Amino acid sequence: MQIEAEWMRGGTSKCWVFETSRLEETRTSPDILLPRLFGSPDHRQIDGVGGASSTTSKAMILNRPDDGDVDVEFTFAQVGIEEAVVDWGSNCGNCSAVVGLYAIEKGWVVPHGDITRIVTRNTNTGQIIIQRVATPAGALPILPQAVMPGVPFPGYQVGLGFQDPAGKTTGTLLPSGSATDLVEAGGTRLTVTMVDAGAPVVILRAEDLGLVPDRYDNWSTDVQPFLPTLEEIRRGAAVRMGLATSPGEAARAVPKVAIVGQPSPGSSLDDPAMASDVNAMMLSMGKPHPALAITGSIALTLAARTDGTILNAITGPATQPTLRLRTPAGVIETWSEERNGSLLVGVDRTARTIATTTIHLPEVIDSMVEPSFAGATQ
User: What is the pTM (predicted TM-score) of this model?
Assistant: First the structure.
């Protein structure tokens, strides 16, 4: 079996990009096909194309819809590493940045003006994302030159504007009906905010876990003893948010977990580029994220704008159109704007195509069923 694919970097993630028609030709369930392509289950993914980390074991499946209002539809797949499973429960904001670039490079969308806007729809969540790709003089730059925190080399600049992002998964911004909730895990009662915007996220206060602002660089290490408790909280929150009927049935990737705290004292004085409104760290597949899930940053932005949430207590009322989030990879700035009667909440990323290739499978997979790549596998 041979499958054509692109290997692309979007933001601080890498993903394999497939066109729907090419995967449908295999007549194989994506829940079986993708883990085998990636080499799962295996913590090294040695016999597949997976990168053996949560940020590099991802796939994007793209389609050109007949709907004239949308340029590209895409489905995100988080492929398990040590388990042969695929999580379809949310989108990946970083990998979303490859969609607009792919559409231009493949001729699906003709660039025009200095900024080409591409209307995309994520089928996992139904979210419309307006992508703004920099095309000076109506073309992609010959050499990508845009840079961003967490990536050592430049890429093409892509802005991601999530249109009216609240409640795309659960139906409401605050799925529990409250700005804060008390949860019990590991023998401790903790206050959390559960929010659905971009992706479902459970937000906790750093101070409740003993994480202090002036030791932000150590948070990834200091949080390790709390990971089992945080997983218990995450699974319990999945039930409260209506994402699962029991903690044991909670998906591996959603809801996400975010830990937030006061900005580090003196960080802006030492390095103005590190000035921020809040310290933030997310967990991805049970481990500290090396940067920040972009869908998570959208959720944090809406949480900061919502009275009574944990994040709003840190940032105060929203008086600026931007929010500066300090992450392990650097400061990410999100933005908000009103456009045609809709709220766009976004962030700028970079993206680049790494390789165009043919993936080979040595065996024929037995699951010959009609595949679905439009969110129906959730």
Answer: 0.83
